[in-house]
Specification:
It is built from 28 helices and 33 strands. The chain has 970 residues and is an alpha/beta fold. The strands form nine sheets. Strands 7, 8, 9, 10, 11, 12, 13, 14, 15 and 16 form a ten-stranded mixed beta sheet that branches. Strands 2-1-24-25-18 form a five-stranded parallel beta sheet, with helices on both faces. Strand 7 and strand 8 form a beta hairpin.
Length: 970
């Protein structure tokens, strides 16, 4: 038994090789990170790495930055996106690429206009009281301020790039390039002006593209309206066609009713109404109603009709109705024809579609398809009826000012009241449904007929780029040639491009790049003169887009008669701006190329930047400006809910950085599956911080254990013990895995295996087993030297592999060990020799750890029952009946593997009372106590302790170490 009663004759602590390192256990990231950032700034890290790669002839990789909007401080969504981009940049540097990454900003558009309008209102001024030049100057200054704020926020996250060469869509050179791109569409004939219903925001007083619209639940009034038949079959005479709509305000714009040849219609006569009602219904016995058979009962229920009789089927072809407001004003005395349309269904409503060609896409198309060309203008830019609209002139459909801005105005109610007065309202109700809203203002939008400029999607274009193909065809071909991460992104953007309408590119606002062109007043066609275009672009490059608005037309037109031409002062859709960024960021710059290798943004950009870039580039260059697209999901709170200040669930990256450090945000971004929506909050950040501490402690332990390590003590592979051979094998496996993951942007597939490696194979196995050797063996001992040789290999690779994801901590670790070395970020991923591969050792150690788990289970019971303390008090006798498991221990010290003082392996089943685990048959453990005395230096209990008279308190190994002068770093 162990004899611990005797006190050691001396204190041997100074002879033990304990780890020593200045690398602190507590990271202090909020204080340390700014110091590291300052060092990176001092050496101009990004450009220094690029210069080294270029000198080495490295292949080029181009990541084109999707521009964030220059409005407000960065949020957690920004942080995720920019961190992912930095993962790409740093990992490609690590893989040996020269990486071109120029951060950029989107500066034009409505959000900034609103902010400036708010500033003006606070000063008691209206926008129309300010010159366009002053207004644009204010917008430019506002955007410039937030570019500076956001840039510092991104840099604080550790994001590297060409910050000095950043781009902004409001830069004069950028605005000139955007206009030049626009001129290419004019020259190729892809641009046209059309009068058609577009989604219009009365609050913003501008048209919106599909990408600027989102859908939210909204409660709308519903009405069933009777249109008296004036021409048709005998059966239809004296009857009324019934329509159903959720937009009563569009009734004054009605010009037709659509039906389907695939639907069965009939005349129904009302015979009885419901009784006991609290109001008098508008339907009356004797009324004749024309309805789809399938929907008749639904209409009767809405109109409180108790009984109706089907008279006969009706053919709608050639039928004409009277407008339901015709009796109230001659303005509505026109005929309302029935038009066959394939958009009509009998899923809901009445089987007929009220058709207002100025307020609906299907309405517009069916109207044109039947030979009609005049599109009525009913609602003005402010969302009010024009003065010529009888009965309703001036009434607002949507309020666009004051506290009620974005709310529906009195128009719906007024129309319903007039329908009641005319005796044409059959029923009304309310319905919650999905309704379009402005992406930016969150206010409802309406379809409104306006003259706008469009880019054709389906017109064959005979240019060297499109070769007679349409823009849609070219874009779809480009999608097929693009790699998507994740792969599902391809189907998403393809379905959007397949179904999208012509690209609406004009906006009626002030802050943006202009549609800088002249239109012939007689023909309505744009002027295409290369010399005029060149003068326009040159002026904008010199003075910015303001030149277009402030200079007279004669400065650009040259020999052309200015009285003949209209100067267009609309601005371009901001998606056209950002979709053109490739033209001035990837072209005509040194050390880059077009197209980009990768575009990386949120998944919402399939309808936004990815698509606008695709269309712009396909229309001007015949292909996409990227070879691959990577998308990430949205950032939610811990419960999977959208963040909002009102809920108090917003995670502010600046607060996280101030309290925990940017490295925690980066580690979180690395650990999540970014392709899906991700969650973040206090609990998630606490878990991330815990993972960080474990990684840091692993690195810290290696730094301490490698103190004073010299390559001279390295051990050759053929001299390595089995444990070291196994760790080298794991490095070989991880090297391939890390390289493949970085190549495929699988950052989670880098960090998670490395965390598991650090926790399982390093801390719980390698470090734990070799701790005794590292602390107590002589410095010349092969076992100790081998352990440090492998630890050096682990450190070299771990700091490189984790560098892109955790650059601050790996930089700190690298420079702690090599104070005079270059930045860790300058390194290329170390080569891992193929001869390190040893599947046999991997198989061996899987078996060894299987047996060890049974031993550990037995000793845990002994400790719990207080029959034993530390594992070094044990001498387990392990019975192994599985020959394969027993053979795995050949050449191993079982006591060292089990972290006990002694151990015995016995072939066989073992006694009945031995400890076993049901899931591991063939292994039984007798948890015996170690016999002998406790070594005062290593704490192992061995019979040999005291047999060396020079050191009566030590084992023979420890006695030799002390005798050999093993005083720790004297």
């Amino acid at each position: 038994m162990a004899d611990d009663a005797e006190k050691p004759s001396r204190d041997y602590r100074e002879t033990v090789f304990l780890p020593e390192t200045p690398f602190p256990m507590r990271a202090g990231l909020p204080q340390k990170e700014p110091e590291i950032l300052a060092k990176w700034d001092a050496i101009d890290l990004y450009n220094t790495v690029r210069a080294e790669r270029q000198r080495a002839g490295a292949p080029l990789f181009v990541l084109h930055d999707g521009p964030p909007y220059a409005n407000g401080a960065i949020h957690i969504g920004h942080s995720l996106q920019k961190t992912l981009k930095d993962f790409v940049v740093r990992s490609r540097f690590l893989l040996g690429y020269d990486v071109d990454y120029v951060p950029g900003w989107d500066c034009h558009g409505l959000p900034i206009e609103w902010k400036i309008e708010e500033e003006l209102r606070s000063q008691g001024r209206r926008k129309d009281e300010v010159s366009k030049a002053e207004f644009r100057t204010r917008c430019r200054e506002y955007a410039a301020h937030w570019i500076d704020v956001q840039r510092e926020g991104f840099k604080r996250l550790g994001v590297i790039g060409d910050w000095a060469g950043r781009y902004a869509t409001m830069d004069y050179s950028s605005e000139a390039a955007i206009v030049a791109e626009f001129h290419k569409f004019v020259a190729s004939g892809q641009l046209y002006r059309g009068s058609k219903p577009v989604m219009w925001s009365p609050v913003e007083r501008t048209a919106l593209a599909d990408a600027e619209v989102e859908y939210h639940d909204h409660v709308s009034p519903t009405i069933w309206v009777k249109f008296p038949v004036v021409e048709g079959s005998q059966a239809a005479r004296g009857a009324s066609v019934v329509i159903w709509t959720t937009t009563p305000w569009t009734i004054p714009a009605n010009r037709a009713i659509s039906y389907s040849d695939a639907i069965d219609y009939a005349v129904y006569q009302v015979e009885a109404m419901e009784e006991g009602l609290e109001f008098e219904p508008w339907a009356k016995p004797g009324d004749r109603l024309i309805l789809a058979d399938k929907l008749a009962d639904d209409v009767f229920k809405a109109a409180k009709i108790a009984k109706a009789r089907r008279l006969e089927a009706v053919d709608c072809q050639g039928m004409v109705c009277e407008h339901p407001l015709a009796a109230l004003d001659t303005h509505y005395s026109f005929q309302v024809p029935l038009l066959e349309g394939d958009h009509v269904t009998d899923d809901a409503g009445t089987g007929f579609v009220h058709t207002a060609p100025g307020h609906g896409a299907d309405d517009y198309l069916v109207w044109l398809a039947h030979g009609h060309r005049e599109i009525p203008d009913t609602v003005d830019p402010d969302g009010a009826y024009y003065p010529h609209v009888a009965l309703f002139a001036g009434l607002k459909v949507l309020e666009n000012e004051g506290k009620k801005a974005g709310k529906f105005g009195p128009a719906n109610g007024a129309v319903m009241e007039k329908l009641i007065e005319a005796g044409r309202l059959l029923a009304r109700g309310r319905m919650e449904h999905s309704y379009p809203h402005s992406w930016r203002s969150k206010a409802p939008v309406i379809f409104r007929n306006t003259p706008q400029w469009f880019i054709r999607m389906d017109e064959p274009i005979d240019t060297p780029q499109l070769h007679g193909r349409t823009l849609r065809e070219t874009a779809l071909e480009s999608i097929e040639a693009t790699a998507f991460y994740p792969a599902a992104g391809k189907n998403r953007i393809r379905s959007m491009v397949e179904s999208r309408p012509d690209w609406l590119i004009s906006r009626q606002r002030a802050w943006g790049a202009p549609l800088a062109m002249f239109v012939d007043k007689d023909t309505g066609q744009p002027l295409h003169d290369p010399e005029v275009d060149a003068r326009i672009v040159a002026a904008i490059r010199e003075e910015g887009a303001d030149a277009w608005f402030t200079r007279p037309a004669t400065d650009f037109l040259g020999q052309h008669d200015p009285d003949r031409y209209e100067k267009v002062e609309d601005i371009l859709d901001v998606w056209f701006d950002s979709g053109s960024t490739h033209a001035f960021t990837l072209e005509n710059r040194a050390h880059t190329r077009w197209p980009a290798d990768l575009y990386l943004e949120g998944s919402d950009q399939h309808r936004g930047w990815f698509q606008s870039s695709l269309l712009e580039s396909s229309g001007t260059r015949g292909r996409a400006p990227y070879d691959a697209i990577l998308t990430h999901g949205f950032t939610m709170d811990e419960n999977g809910e959208k963040m909002s200040k009102s809920k108090g669930n917003v995670v502010d990256p600046q607060v996280v950085i101030r309290e925990s450090g940017a490295e925690i945000i980066r580690l979180w971004a690395a650990m999540i599956d970014y392709s899906d929506d991700s969650r973040i909050g206090k609990t998630v950040l606490a878990t991330t911080s815990d993972a960080y501490r474990k990684l840091r402690n692993t690195v810290r332990y290696m730094l301490g254990a490698l103190a004073d390590y010299s390559p001279d003590e390295a051990v050759e592979l053929d001299q390595m013990p089995p444990l070291e051979r196994f760790i080298l094998h794991r490095l070989w496996e991880l090297d391939a895995q890390v390289r493949a993951a970085y190549e495929g942007y699988g950052f989670q597939d880098v960090i998670r295996p490395l965390i598991e490696f650090c926790q399982n194979e390093l801390s719980s196995l390698f470090f734990d087993i070799r701790r005794d050797s590292l602390y107590c063996d002589q410095p010349t001992a092969i076992r100790r030297r081998a352990a440090r040789t492998v630890m050096d290999a682990v450190f070299e690779r771990l700091t490189a592999w984790l560098g892109p994801l955790m650059p601050f901590t790996m930089e700190e670790a690298w420079t702690t060990r090599y104070p005079d070395a270059h930045s860790n970020a300058l390194r290329i991923i170390p080569e891992t020799p193929a001869e390190w591969a040893s599947p046999a050792e991997a198989e061996r150690w899987a078996k060894v750890q299987t047996v060890t788990s049974v031993v550990t289970g037995a000793l845990e019971i002994e400790r719990r029952e207080k029959r034993m303390g530390a594992a070094l008090e044990a001498a387990p006798r392990v019975h192994i009946s599985d020959a394969g498991l027993l053979a795995a221990f050949e050449g191993l010290d079982a006591a060292e593997v089990f972290r006990t003082s002694q151990a015995t392996l016995v072939a066989g089943e073992g006694p009945d009372g031995a400890f076993r685990l049901a899931e591991i048959p063939g292994v039984a453990v007798e948890p015996l106590r170690a016999e002998g005395r406790k070594c005062a230096r290593s704490w192992r209990i061995l019979p040999e302790v005291g047999t060396d008279p020079r050191y009566p308190d030590l084992s023979l190994r420890d006695a030799e170490a002390v005798a050999a002068g093993g005083a720790a770093r004297a």
